[in-house]
Every structure is written in C-alpha cells, then in structure tokens.
Amino acid sequence: MNDTTLTVLGFRAGRPDADSACSGYLVRHAGSTVLVDCGPGIVTELVSRGLEHRLDGIVLTHLHQDHMFDVVPLAFTRLLTKTPPARIPLWVPEESTGTLAALDEWVAVPTDPVVGRPLATAFDIRPLERDGRTEVAVADGITLTAFRARHAVPSASLRFALGDRTLAFSSDTGWCDGVLAAATGADVFVCEATYLDADPAMLAEHGHLTAALTGELAVAAGVGRLVVSHLLGYDDAESFEAARAAAGTVPVTEARAGLVVPVRAAGAAR
Predict the structure, then answer these.
(1) What would the pLDDT profile of 182-213 be if each residue is shown by its tens digit?
(2) What is this structure's pTM?
(3) Fewer Cβ atoms within 10 A, N terminus or C terminus of the chain?
(4) Entry's PANTHER family (predicted)?
(5) Is 179 helix (H, G, I), strand (E, B) or coil?
(6) Distance separating the N- and C-terminal Cα atoms of the chain
(7) Domain formed by 5-262, architecture
C-alpha cells in the first residue's frame, strides 16, 4: 500500500462551482498530512473527511482569494470547538506575512478571547523563503523547498521531498526559472493551466500558463506525471487535451475533486 499520496480537494481557479472547490490539496506521507492552499470550499471538503483537526501543517502558495480565503473559516472551525487542537504551522511567502496579519485584525472578534486574533491563535504563521535553497521541515517525514514563481503577487512554486519521492506544485505562475527548478525531475507535478488561449501580454501581466505551456513545462522539467489543475471551468476538456498533446510521453492526469494520486519514485511501476 502506497502511503505517499496527493489528494485533490479542489482545483478551480477564480471561484468554486458545483463540481469543485477552489485550490486545495492534501500531501500525505509517513503518517503526516499537509494542506497546500485553502481556497473557498476547502473547509467543507476537510470537514466531510473529518480532517479539520487532523492537519500537521498548511502551506499557502500565495494570497489570492481562490488559494487562501478558507483559511479564515478553518481557523474559526479549529478554535470554536469544545477542545481546540494545538496550533499548527502555516507557511506563507515571506513578503506576505504582513498581509495575513492585517487580515487577522480584520476578521477578529475583539470581545471574544478565543477568536480575538483567530489566525494567530489557530496557526503558527511562518515566512516561506522562496530562495530555492532553504529546506523546511513542514511535518514528520515531509520537507519543502520553495521557489520564486512569476505572478501578480508573491507566489511560491513548491517542491516536497517525501522520502525518496518528490511532489511539486507550480502555484500560479508564468513560465520562469523558479517553477522549472521546482518541477525538475519531480515524480508528480501539479501545474496550473488557467487559460486555453491567451496572448503573451496577458500571460506576462497576470503570471499564468496556457494548457499547452503546462504540457511543455512538464516535458522541459522531465516530470514523472503531470496533474493539470487550476481550471476556470469554461473549457476544461479542451484544456486537458491541449496539455496532454503538448506533454508528449509524459503521463497526464486531469485534476478532479477527490482524485488520489499515488506519488511513486522514478522507475516504480505506474
């Protein structure tokens, strides 16, 4: 049995819909569970699985709403219970800790000592250095290196070491050295495919990829498997096919809610 897995809780860009929450993923290895991103709808997915109090850490790739807005209801869910669980680490790109602190003040209930500062009370907020060198132990058996992605706000491409296996996330990003380094040689690579078509100026301004660029990036990085995610919901089937065509011989999986992908080391049976 493979206990090293990626679970897709949500994969939508921009807004949730009837089929999926926004971005949120579980990384599981050696008995530890880490949540990557916490967009709208993710708390519902966690509660439905009984996991809202069983996370060992959280990583937010960036502070756009479709990747982090449910971190507030998650904090309240963890605090407003008979026996609140212990604080867990929450990593956010180093330039964004002040933004998260300001959000904490905005959502606070100052007359209630339990949720007077809900984010800081529920989570141990830590800066995530995106230098491509610093290794962070995010949970027992799980280490993380973050890279500077290319996006409209500070954004982190992620590379998890899970024993002898590697799982990478693009975050929201255009093609850049950071995402390529994060993905190089990864056994599984979760990559955004926001647009089916977009002109270069749009891609540069917003810091996103087309589906074809997603496939080409997987080839350039030499990944073992590509998981196509961060879809807008308008042309998912076309986007998936475009990514698969561009990925050549790289196996491609379309993200869907509830998908569980075993993370297997290179050379293992797929």
Answers:
(1) 999 999 999 999 999 999 888 888 999 999 99
(2) 0.97
(3) N
(4) METALLO-HYDROLASE YHFI-RELATED, ZINC PHOSPHODIESTERASE ELAC PROTEIN 1
(5) helix
(6) 13
(7) 4-Layer Sandwich (3.60)
